[in-house]
């Protein structure tokens, strides 16, 4: 009824291979895209700067990690360090006078070249052992940044990001920073949506399912594992530069510690491994659930006169947050994207109950 | 039941638009001065924040109960940012949209990240015992106000106290045990300079963050046979350091911390064993000061206290009262300068930067904030734990400010050059 699938028959291969074969989905995507584009005009400033901007940046980062974890099946616990390399690399480049567009790519390349070194561990170890190797990367990169004042910026360990421009647009104020982040997010999203249909995506899927089997059918696992780390680290580096320039505007080592890596892994898992949409859902849940729960509890404590102590008031949101993540994973282990897809499947044939997928 | 596609779409559009109307509680009333206090109650600072925030809120309640300042009452927006930057930035932006004139994040990472925003938005950011040390230079950081001795000053004060006790530090050995983070390494340049000019030997012992295992470091400290030891950390690292120092038999009366040591730490370590250890005291601790007595009588006694009564008068509680009293004094001076307001960040800034000789009825050293000096003169005293409470070893004093300001100007100049 909503999706109006009846009568849609694809007569050309191009139609069959579209990303969104149903007109309803295409309309929805266009509507979301237009809303995102128009957000600075109708959204309260607080929601633009406090919610939309971090959401699209963290979603882009989650997409980059999802490429590696969901696409190629390699776990990475040091993605925060990858982002840090990109952020520090590009900020230092910008400070030395290189244009932001090039510094962004440069940050990505720097992350990719360091990331691939640690990714090489994936050639020999898997699963938990790979998790340990990438965790080591997190600590080594943290250590290097903190202990080299030329990188971290002296005893204050904070580097200001100079004013930059992106393709002629001065990245100052709320709307321009938002558009730059949105642009990068859209490019990465389009890449992720399409990569599954390429030979690279299929090779990675084969590696993900079983690397021996992939090797037997002729996929060069050596090459594709490294390529997966390279691409994912490159995206991480670019996100790092966006994060530094558009959002933080001053970077210090504690912004990129293990907490960030864990946060991103949580986004990917809660959102749904390998799902593009899931990365956005996961980022939204992990970023905003603590804030909203805190406000809800604060509102109850303040506005509705529920007398609770400050300690309890600040810890109850954490407990609810934990319970929420466990609840989501129990209810739907395949992530938030699967919940969306279940709802969509239901409405595909609504008001009837069953239909072929 | 039939839902037409049109109704469905119209309904969702209406819902989407309706969600855009922000719920603003009764915050837009007149005669309210809004302070935003997003602080870390859950991650790193935990009990420090709980006690600090309790002190702040109790003091603001005291002022509100007395009728406020110039008919204006204070609203303290306390929330938890968990030391997480997206949450802190959201809280900051929310504060800005609600018209807050002051933000107090009490967190070094958050304060550092908020500096560009505060300078741009002209919202006063209080960075007491946190944030950038070079923010003491008010000419470069007009809206960042530490209002308290920074870590460079604290290190300088301790060295000067050691000199006062020993007469001369040349040939002495001073160990600096610190957490291996930018915060822990911060005093090193000052200490190195002082070591050079005063002729003592400086030995630095970094331990890995968060510092819950320091057992490898302290035997080395003991082996070095130091004349004085400074330990520099925060949170759990402090109690672990003190426990290890006791276990290694180091002389407690030659051991000192920065401002981050409190009665609560002593309960963890064992109050009697730790007797003799020293700390930098930016304000009087205990319940004797007049303001604390007033709070006990008028706020806690009236059942309006913000937390447990036994925390009233602890070190961090008094830090909270100290900072809140400085903020309120800033408001009072701002009203003196411009009685009709309007209440904005700029208006408050003029008041905060003109605080003159304010001592909070004996709670803090006479503090003068100027547009150049946001540190307030860098005065404090040394307190010694006697097994039950901190007892003042010295009067308020200030020392080695020439070295400190050299460092402040070096970094603020660098910020000025590259920050814009």
Automatic annotation (TrEMBL), chain A:
Taxonomic superkingdom: Bacteria
Q: How does it sit in the membrane?
A: Multi-pass membrane protein
Compartment(s) where it occurs, according to its Swiss-Prot or TrEMBL record: Cell membrane
Q: Where are the transmembrane segments?
A: 20-42, 48-68, 75-94, 100-121, 128-148, 177-195, 227-250, 262-289, 296-312, 318-337
* Protein name in UniProt: Branched-chain amino acid ABC transporter permease
Keywords of the record: Cell membrane, Membrane, Transmembrane, Transmembrane helix
Organism encoding this protein:
Neoaquamicrobium microcysteis
What GO cellular component entries does it have?
plasma membrane
Keyword Iron attributed: no
- Give an example GO molecular function: branched-chain amino acid transmembrane transporter activity
UniProtKB/TrEMBL annotation, chain B:
Which keywords accompany this UniProt record? Signal
Q: Which InterPro entries match?
A: Leu-bd, Peripla_BP_I, TAT_signal
Q: Which residues form the Leucine-binding protein domain?
A: 37-387
Q: What PANTHER family does its record include? A: BLR6548 PROTEIN (PTHR47235)
Task: Give the similarity note.
Answer: Belongs to the leucine-binding protein family.
Q: What is this protein called?
A: ABC transporter substrate-binding protein
